[in-house]
Amino acid sequence: MSNALAVYHGPFGRASIYRLDKPLATHAHREGHLIFLVGGTESTQDISCVNYPLSKQFGTAVNAWQPHDFIPGDTVNGSYFLTLYINPAWFLELGRNARSAFRFGRNSIEVTSQIGRLVQMVTSLLMEHDYNSMFDGYLYELVRECFDQSWQWVDGDTDMRNDWVTVSDFRIRKSMQLMKERLGDELVLDTIARDSGLSRPHFYKLFRQNIGLTPNIYLNTLRMETSINRLTQTADPITSIGLDIGFSSQASFTRFFTSNSGIAPTEYRRATTLRP
Known about the structure:
This protein is an alpha+beta fold.
C-alpha cells in the first residue's frame, strides 16, 4: 500500500515524500508541481496526454491546472518520490519577479548534478523532519533551477512566461463559482450547466476551451483542496470531511482521496507537519 513518509505544509506550498505503488487518476492542481524519483523503479507520468519518464535522469514539471496522472513502475514494492506543490506567490516574491507568472516552459526536467544535489538536500531534510531555516533556501534554489531549465531551448515567444490562465466566457466563470458554492451537494454537472445558461455538450466544450480541463477534474480539484485543508488544519473526523464535500460514506471519500493523491486521508493527516 502507498504511504507518506513526510508531508510538510508552509508558505512555499507543500513538500512530501511518498512511496507509491498504485496508479493515480487524471487530476490537476492549482499550484505548479515538481516530481522526482528518489528511490526505487522508474515510473511514468502522462501530462496533457504526453508520456514522460520519472527516473534518476528525469523529473517532471506540471503547470497549474495541467491534467496529469501517474503510472507506477513497481506495483509490489513501490517507488519513492519527492513531490512539490509550489505556491506561485512565494516563488515569485523570493525571485523579486512579481510581474511574471509561475509557468514552466516544458514538462520534462533533466536531473543535472546541481538539481540532483538540491533534490537530495530537500529530501534529506524532509526525511529527518528537519524543517530549519535552510529548508526554504534549498527548496527555492531547486525550483528556480527547474524553472530556468524548463525555458532553455523552448521554441516561440518567451513572453509565454507571463501568460495567466484567463476565463473569458462569463458563463464558465459562473459555473466555476457554482461548483465552489455547491461543493457539499450531490452535484450533477448537468444542473450546473443549466444554471449557467448552457446545454450539457456546450458546457463541457466551453469549459475545456477556457480551463483546459473537464468540469469533472476541476470539481475534483476543488474537493481535494478543501479536504487537504480540513485534514491538516482541523481535527474534524474523516467521515465529516467526506460528507461535507459530497461523499456518502467514509469509504467512498477514502477511495476518491487515494485515487487523486496516492495516499489515504488518514495517512495524509498522520504524516503532515504544518508550519504556521
